[in-house]
Amino acid sequence: MTTLEQLSQTNSQLQQTIVNEFSALDLAALNYKPTPESWSILECLEHLNRYSQYYNPALARAIADNSDGSNVTSITYSWLGKKSLDIVRPQNGKKHKTVKHMNPANSTLGLATIEAFLKHQQELQSLLQAAKNSNLNKKAIPVEFFKLLKMRIGETLEFIVMHQERHVQQALRVKQQAVYSEGSSLSLIAGC
């Protein structure tokens, strides 16, 4: 069973990974794509930014509306939550198509994408702390692409963190491919 503390630790680790692994890269490296169909590091992060723009405010409302003292701090899962978590689990190597408006492919992106990601991570960290005083099993978060379906607060928090972990791992693989690609003339560290 996942706890808010575990999600908070993972979220902090993701922030550190972004700072440590990507902040020194130049724009060519950040926009490197192993294949024309794959995402660059910045596209991976922009995809997560788009999800955060929807889910962070939805979570903030749900947590505020369900912090009436009847807090339930253990996360239980609905069928929708289990299915959603199985899809985004970092260990799930199966590729999944994203909805069109969440697909950042071929976007023009810069360093502001990283700054926005880190800002969203700080917001999420605050939401994870605030959620300690709410009912995590309240169905209150409309699913972004089909708002008639709702996920529970706790499983949505876990979905967001796992989804981010999945795509940060994808971005790390892109960085590794950029470093080791034959004949690559990318300057991966600013100033080199």
Automatic annotation (TrEMBL):
Recorded superkingdom: Bacteria
DinB-like domain span: 15-171
One Pfam family of this chain: DinB_2
SUPFAM superfamilies: DinB/YfiT-like putative metalloenzymes
Name of this protein: DinB family protein
Organism: Pontibacter populi
